Structure formats: structure tokens, C-alpha cells
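To: structure subgroup
Subject: Chain for Friday's discussion

All,

I'm putting the inputs and outputs inline so they're searchable in the archive.
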Amino acid sequence: MKVLFLILSLCLGDVQSSSSQSEVTDFESLPAVQWKFRTNAPILASPFIHGNLAYVGSGDSVLYALDIETGKSRWTFRIQGPILSTVCIGGDQLFLLAGDGSCYSLDKNSGKMLWRFKTRGEKVYQYYGYADYHHSSPVLYKSIVYFGSGDGNVYALKSNNGKVLWSFKTGDVVHSSPVVGNDKLFIGSFDGHVYALDCQSGALVWKFKSVGHRFFPKGEMQGSPVTANGLVYIGSRDYNLYAIDAEKGYCHWNKQFPKGWAMALSVRDTVLYVGTSDDDLMIAMDGRSGAELWRTDMKFNMFGTCTFTSSMMYFGTLLGKIHGLDLQTGAIRWTFNTDGYNEHHSKYFPSESVIVKNDFYASLSWPDGYITALHELGAIFSKPAISENLIIVSSTDGTVYCLRK
């Protein structure tokens, strides 16, 4: 079980977190606000806790290292583009993939730059680009840093000096975050393929092509994969969730969603937890068969993944709400509203209890009005980070929230 959890944590970029999630007790009731830290732009990247610091990048082009007890900034690191990915840490090194098209290695304690690798440039996917929310988050495995890039390549860099070990060219933008299993790297591309690559050589082991959809014929693989049960799970823009054989690359099963995408994937033991966009559902599925165990209507879209404790899960929606759910039943135990939601929800919805998405969409110019609304509502695109009795989460209202049990 511990080995499985390690592999899954690599996927989510938090294998070096200071305390194992399996050892953290449940947040059974609504936690109180410990502190808030305000940045100068919306935040889509997830916070990462290591020791007594939380690291989070913002759309204001700054990476912040925050004291988890006080919320005070210990150090900052500025780049030339927005930060839309989550850091990872190995030893004293922090690795950041930034919106300026560079991968940085920083000293985790001081923020001093150790090395910088420049890709051929970052870019937003050209079709339906406003919904290309995240960049690839780096993964560290056996002293190698792996990530995808907007230049269409998957890169493997030596962690000590940033030198390229290998690169692999796909057919389009790669903003999926990689996951490693059995010395293979799994990653999706906007060309509609999932690639399995040999970790050491970068050689192609297999590739899998999505079906496609009348709105998205390429079947762009925008979601990030997770692995369990000998399978690779990934959500595509073609409204499908795929369960692909990790060794051979064929599909064991797929599930189509009527209204949209299923890209917010998390896994625990043999259970796959699927957060959906437009269908507004959080679904627990048997990861081996795809059979549904429970579903909960969350009223709004989800793009951020879950964090787990013993018997609960925690995640946010684009409505600006963070939820704590019972793992066994899907029952909502508590909900926390961002400041953005509290301040602006009456502008878009008739009441706290009446959330009518069709009316919401109809009232907005597209896509600029939609993006503005999400920013005002404090949408959660990130994965909450947990350390003992604290939950830290970021929001598009520009705020990092710390909640204490």
C-alpha cells in the first residue's frame, strides 16, 4: 500500500510532503481560517507543503514560500510569465516549470536559483484556449526531472545541473502532468495521444489515441494521468475517461460524460475519484471495472484534484467553494466559501441555494465574461494541500487560504 501511495503522490507532485496523508486525521467539521495571503493576480497553481513552508505560484509571476503557521512570506522568486503549475522538491532543490517557458531549480530554503533550462517556448493551446488552464507540473524520479511543454515536447533533465537527458516530440502542446510507474513515464498531449515513454531513454513504449468528439475531433488529452490497478486513467476533451493498460497501451474501459470533461482525477486504493466539468459531479468508481460506487452533485465545474485523509476527501469547485466529503458515501460534511464567492455570488446567482448554470452562462460574454466571473467568484482550480491540522488552498480571487482544524 505504501509503495502504491508513493507512485500516486509522484503523479500529483507531492511525494516529498512533510507528513503522509494517510497519517493525518480527518477534518470532520468546517475548519476555521488560520490566515490568508493575498497575491496580485488569480492563482490556478496548487500549493505544495514541505516542512514548515507552503510553496505556491501565482498569475502575478511570483513563486511564494509561505510560513504555514503564520502565512508570512519567507522568500519570493519572480519570473517573466504566469505560474500555472505546481512545484516539486527533492532534497534541498525545488523544481518549478514557469510560464516563461523555463524549468528552474531553486534552493528550497532561500529561493536562490541553482540552474535554469529554457524550452523552445510556452504557449496556450490554440483551440478553446481560454480553457487551457494549467501547465505541466514537474515530477522528480530517480534524480531526473520530467515535464511537458507548450513547445510540444516532453523533457527529462538531470536534477543536479538541468542538462537534457532526452526529449520526446509529440504532435501538439503538452500541458498534462506526467506520472511514473514501473520505470515508464505516462503523459497526455493535445494531439489526442497518451504516451508511455521509457524513463531512462525516452523511447516510445506505446501510444494510445482518443476517440474524438464532434466538438473536439482531435480528442485532446488535456487531463493529467493517474495510475493504479495496472491501469493509466486520463480524461480527454472528447468527453471520455479512459482506463488504459499500463503495460500494453490498450483500453480496458472508458466512460463517456454527457455534458463535458472528466479531467480532475484522484485515486486511493482501488477507487478512482472523478471530478467533472459541466456534469458537475464528483463520482467514486471501482478503478478496475469502471463501475460507479456513488455520485454527488456539486452544482458546478471541477478542475482541481482531491486530497485525502483517513475517511474524507477535500477539493474545490469553480464556484469558489471548498468541500469536505465522506469517502464511503460521498456525503458533503462541510463547505467553505472563498472571499470571492462571498463578495460576488449575488451578482451572478439569485441566492445562496439557487445555482442555475444555464442562466449564469447566458448572462456572460464569452469567453472574457466567463473568465472574469470565475476570477471574481474565487474559483478553485487547485488541489488542497494538508499538513497535520492545516488545509492550504489557492483561489482565483488571488488569495491563499489556510484553514485550521
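Points worth raising on Friday:
The longest helix spans residues 2-12.
Confidence is low (pLDDT under 50) at residues 1-22.

D.
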